[in-house]
Structures are given as structure tokens and as C-alpha cells.
Amino acid sequence: MPLKYYTHGRRDEMKVALTFDDGPNPPRTDQVMEILESRGARGTFFVLGKWVERFPEAFQRIVDKGHSIGNHSHLHEAHLGDFDRAEALIGNLLGRPTRFLRAHYFNFFTCLYSPVAMSRDMKIVDADVNPADYAKADPKAIIDATLEDPALAGGSIIDLHDGREFDDDARRLASPLPMIEALPAIVDGLQARGFELVGLDEMELVDPIEWQPDGRGNFASPEVRAAIQGLSGKAD
Ligand SMILES: [Zn+2]
């Protein structure tokens, strides 16, 4: 079965989906939700199983606020089975399977080996607007990279990050997250253009892309990299 993923929803509807990866990351995730809520916006949180395990109450607050939830793997590493491990945890807390999954580092290959990722009701979701907020220190640069992206249109899916890769709490909390400072202006700017900010569960995803081995498995384990090269028939 071919692996398909989505980067956007219907272009003839003025809906945009803000997605937040790598959390939950209290209290930052709560700040994000406050900004969304104060502006009547919903978001989608692609959470990591390891952080859900560590911050179950923070995860529950996302659920209670009514935002969409997606599976973004357990360890954020390219181990086979990482999506399934996360799903066992997230789905159990949700009381139902997640419907959206985001591959980390474009490592779609591991999805091929995941029953959860390949299940019929699961949609693998990328984004068409990628402001790379994790690599920008200046909130203004994040705002501009989002609102001035030529791909921004009805149906756009915007990829932001509310989480951080630090196990140590002091480092995690000390790590700046300029996206939070940028977010009010991003939401205001999108709404001023007439976009409704919806969760992925309110967006009809269209034009799936059939994944082809494209050399983007560079973060994968050596075994997975070798398998990708075998699929594509060339070194990456
Ligand atoms: Zn991620």
C-alpha cells in the first residue's frame, strides 16, 4: 500500500490550521492555548508520547480545551514502532485512536512499518507553511516567515513548535520559545485576512502526496537508512 500524506486542506475554504509539534511542554503549551482561546482559535497539537507520559496533566488540559490531537511519535527518533508506542499511550488517555500523525524529520519511511501510521483512519499530515520557528530567535522573523509565505492560502497547514528536546527541566524552562511572542500577531494577521483558525478535525484534507523515497531519511538509524537507499536504488 502506498504511503500518502497531506500538506493542506481544501483551497476553496478560508480555513487555516495552526499545528504545534513536540509538546506538551508546560507552561508553554498553556500559554499557546491561552493565546488561541483569547482569539477564538483552535489548534492541533502533535504531541510526543514521552512528554505525554511525563506531563499527563498538561496533555489532559489540551484535550479539555477541545483542541485537536495528533501522534508525533514517542521518542522523536527514527525507531520502528515509535508511532505505535506513542499511540498506545495517547489513544488510551484519549479513549479513542488519534486520527492525525506527523512524521518527524520527514522520516516517512518508518511510517511504512507502523500499523498505526498505515491504518485506514489515520491521516499523515505535513504542512505547506513551514516558518522554521525552532531555528529563529526573533519573533518578528517568525511572524514574517508565516504571514509572508507565498504558500499561505485557504487550506494551509502551518507547522510551529511548542515543545523542546530537553529532558532536564531547568534547561527546558530556560530555553526561549520566541514562537510564543510571535503567536498573537500570527493569529491576528491570519484572522485579519479572513482566515478561520481551525483544528485539523475541521478541515477536509485534499490532494494527498504519494511518498517516494527522496533521501530525506537522513536522521534515520543506519539500518533504516540502508533500507531507504535500497528502496530508492541510490545513495543519499
Ligand atoms: Zn518534531
Helix content: 25-40%
CATH class: Alpha Beta
Total helices: the number is 10
Counted beta strands: 9
CATH topology: TIM Barrel
Oligomer kind:
single chain
Task: Provide the low-confidence segments as ranges.
Answer: none
Q: What's the name of the CATH homologous superfamily? A: Glycoside hydrolase/deacetylase
Please give a structural write-up:
- With 236 residues, the protein is of the alpha/beta class.
- It has one domain (4-232): TIM Barrel.
- The chain contains ten helices and nine strands.
- It has helices spanning 28-38, 49-54, 56-64, 82-94, 109-112, 115-118, 139-147, 169-174, 178-192, 222-232, and strands at 4-6, 15-23, 44-47, 68-71, 100-101, 123-125, 157-161, 196-197, 209-210.
- It is globular and about 45 Å long.
- The model has no long low-confidence stretch (mean pLDDT 91).
- The structure holds zinc ion.
- Residues 21-22, 72, 76, 104 line the site of zinc ion.
Short description:
This protein has 236 residues and is of the alpha/beta class.
Task: For this entry, give a set of tags.
single chain; 236 residues; alpha/beta; TIM Barrel; 4-stranded mixed sheet; 10 helices; binds zinc ion
Secondary structure topology:
Blueprint: E1 4-6, E2 15-23, H1 28-38, E3 44-47, H2 49-54, H3 56-64, E4 68-71, H4 82-94, E5 100-101, H5 109-112, H6 115-118, E6 123-125, H7 139-147, E7 157-161, H8 169-174, H9 178-192, E8 196-197, E9 209-210, H10 222-232
Parallel strand pairs: 1-6, 2-3, 2-7, 2-8, 3-4, 5-6
Antiparallel strand pairs: 1-9
Helix pairs in contact: 1-9, 7-9
The structure holds zinc ion (ZN).
